[in-house]
């Protein structure tokens, strides 16, 4: 994509201290957007924003992206700092593996709160602001291939990701009259700081992915920027899978 594609845009990206979220925030800033980067870890958020500021405009706001009070404060601070909000990326999420027969209510509630409440209420807060501005905007939610294919020990997590895709579809009715698009990305196996902790991760997913490798964060960020760009303005309510073909065959990594 050409430089400056997102000039004059203002974006919030949650869970962006590292991994996919960081790369989405970085690419938006490189393309001219003013980016508010959120992470629950203050030091990580500050360090990530400092890296991006060497190439573009990025402002760190640390806090819990599942907290509805914080979400409103973050959106308000974004508008106060940059005058408006045109892009929101609900990237923050957690994965808690667990056997269905032993899965604990505390783990269930945490996954629901971060993945569902955080996404729902960021979309709400951003849309309220975009509606007020009368200039439209783009909202992107983060799903997963587990919304489409079963994965052992991820029942609760998979529920949230399928629900996120339905949220994107449903909100078309609410948001389209205000020129606000909403879509979801469903990444497959992706190399990040977290997955790097598994020494066999890349080898395993390279073996079972038709494209011959897991995604890298640039693969996901490239798709995100397309879905947020003017080139996709007539796309809304959709979920885009980025998995190197894994969901076509779906072999288990274990």
Question: What does it look like?
Answer:
The strands form 2 sheets. Strands 3-2-1-4-5-6-9 form a 7-stranded parallel sheet, with helices on both faces. The radius of gyration is 17 Å and the shape is globular. It is an alpha/beta fold. 46% of the residues are buried. The protein has helices at 19-30, 42-53, 68-82, 105-133, 155-175, 201-208, 217-228, 246-249, and strands at residues 10-13, 34-39, 57-62, 87-90, 137-142, 180-187, 190-191, 215-216, 239-242. It has a single domain (10-240), classed as Rossmann fold (3-Layer(aba) Sandwich). It is built from 8 helices and 9 strands. The model has no long low-confidence stretch (mean pLDDT 96).
Task: Based on the model shown, name its key terms.
254 residues, Rossmann fold, globular, single chain, alpha/beta, 7-stranded parallel sheet, two-stranded parallel sheet
User: Rg from C-alpha positions?
Assistant: 17 Å
Structural class: alpha/beta
Distance between the termini: 37 Å
Count of individual helical segments: 8
β content, as a range?
Answer: 15-25%
Low-confidence stretches: none
What is the mean pLDDT? 96
Q: Residue share in helices?
A: 40-55%
**From the coordinates shown, what is the CATH architecture?**
3-Layer(aba) Sandwich
The H/E string reads: EHEHEHEHEHEEHEHEH
CATH topology: Rossmann fold
Instruction: Name the strands of the widest sheet in spatial order.
Output: 3-2-1-4-5-6-9
The total of beta strands comes to 9
CATH class (first level) name: Alpha Beta
Q: Can you say what the CATH homologous superfamily is?
A: NAD(P)-binding Rossmann-like Domain
**Basic shape:** globular
């Amino acid at each position: 994509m050409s430089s400056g594609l997102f000039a004059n845009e203002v974006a919030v990206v949650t869970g962006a201290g590292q991994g996919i979220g960081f790369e989405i925030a970085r690419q938006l800033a490189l393309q001219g957007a003013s980016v508010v980067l959120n992470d629950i870890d203050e030091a990580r958020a500050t360090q990530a924003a400092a890296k991006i500021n060497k190439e573009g405009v990025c402002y760190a706001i640390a806090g819990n992206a599942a907290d509805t009070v914080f979400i409103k404060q973050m959106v308000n601070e974004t508008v106060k700092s940059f005058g408006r909000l045109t892009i929101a990326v609900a990237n923050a999420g957690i994965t808690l593996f667990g056997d269905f027969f032993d899965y604990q209510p505390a783990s269930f509630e945490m996954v629901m709160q971060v993945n569902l409440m955080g996404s729902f209420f960021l979309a709400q807060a951003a849309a309220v602001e975009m509606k007020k501005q009368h200039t439209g905007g783009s909202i992107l939610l983060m799903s997963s291939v587990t919304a489409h294919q079963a994965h052992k020990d991820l029942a609760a997590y998979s529920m949230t990701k399928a629900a996120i895709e339905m949220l994107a579809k449903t909100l078309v009715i609410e948001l389209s009259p205000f020129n606000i698009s909403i879509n979801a990305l469903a990444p497959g196996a992706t190399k990040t700081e977290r997955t790097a902790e598994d020494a066999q991760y890349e080898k395993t997913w390279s073996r079972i992915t038709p494209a011959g490798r897991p995604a890298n964060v640039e693969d996901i960020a490239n798709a995100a920027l397309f879905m947020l760009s003017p080139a996709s303005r007539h796309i809304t309510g959709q979920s885009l899978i980025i998995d190197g073909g894994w969901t076509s065959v779906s072999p288990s990594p274990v």
